[in-house]
Write a structure and sequence with these properties.
Length: 95
């Protein structure tokens, strides 16, 4: 695939780059090389290769939620400096 000056200008605008003429020429060469390399993938025979969604065999990695501690309000409030009606008592923040 041939990369044109317009393509380089457009990519520069999208990337918000200000390129010199030498940098634009180098970018054209680099992009051409990249596209040629990626184009080689079209030469591969992938007819008998199964489609995959992930590189590693991953199953459901989520776990079920399990409650490990009960609502032990008395134990939780034992370290509170002050409590009232089974809740933490804190200083007022608004008048």
């Amino acid at each position: 695939m041939q990369i044109t000056d317009e393509t380089i200008e457009y990519v520069g605008i999208l990337a918000k780059l200000e390129l010199t003429d030498a940098e634009k020429e180098q970018a054209k060469q680099d992009m051409s090389k990249m596209l040629d390399y990626v184009g080689k993938l079209n030469e591969l025979d992938t007819d008998n290769v199964p489609a995959m969604s992930h590189a590693f065999p991953v199953s459901n990695v989520f776990r079920e939620d399990e409650v490990t501690n009960a609502d032990d309000r008395e134990n939780l409030l034992s370290n509170a400096p002050e409590s009232k009606n089974g809740c933490y008592k804190v200083p007022k923040t608004f008048d």
